[in-house]
């Protein structure tokens, strides 16, 4: 009677570690990494967190999406470095002057810290997205009692970045096929992002509206809707949930205490 279960458990034991960790645990891991990056202001600590997030992503063999996501956000971080290096309100110490343009140490450190936080969020989110599928996440979250509407909102937020990246690639390929927006140097690649932003946002919003209409036509809002059960076997679900949730609460309380202490 117990042979099928023993065979199934044996197959689970030989799967990768990301396959036996439930989606909520992975989501809480990503959340805790992001909270850790916001609790510290030291640049070395932020770099260490980026390294930890990168190692976790590489161990899970899901680094390709992260590389594309980092490329997608590099222009934003580069812009932050320039703007904050020039116009940060607490700029005092001159670090370097290029053709009469002065960059200050305080602004560059602040922008570098914010850039590291963005990288941590991107790497942690990439880990969550590449190690779980949309259907697996939806089934598990509904199974643990989360509203299907909340599940849809959460999944839409988590998967909007790769969708925008895919749309941007299609738009750039269409422009290059028409002889527009040729990219030969790194500077030209950075400049090519700006004219893509407007059609990119419009296309992404249009796809979201289409998805919403399709789900309604399929009875997504039906009160008699029954959640499907996930066939995967996960290990130490409650222990992982409680431990990571407690860590998230501690980090949030710590950050609030740091913010509140400045006004005392």
What are the main properties of this structure?
disordered N terminus, mainly alpha, 264 residues
Globally, the shape reads: globular
| Category from helices, strands and their pairing | mainly alpha
List the uncertain runs.
Answer: 1-15
Helix-strand sequence: HHHHEEHHHHHHH
Radius of gyration: 22 Å
Binned strand content = under 5%
What's the pLDDT, averaged over the residues? 75
Percent helix range? over 70%
Query: N-to-C terminal Cα separation, in Å?
Result: 65 Å
**What summary fits the major beta sheet?**
2 strands, antiparallel
Subcellular location: Membrane
Main location: membrane
Protein name: Energy-coupling factor transport system permease protein
Keywords: Membrane, Transmembrane, Transmembrane helix
Describe this structure in words.
- This protein is mainly alpha-helical and 264 residues long.
- 72% of the residues lie in helices and 3% in strands.
- It has eleven helices and two strands; from the N terminus they run ααααββααααααα.
- α2 runs parallel beside α11, α4 (63-87) runs antiparallel to α5 and α8 (160-177) packs across α10.
- The chain crosses the membrane at residues 33-59, 65-87, 108-130, 150-168, 243-260.
- Keywords: Membrane, Transmembrane, Transmembrane helix.
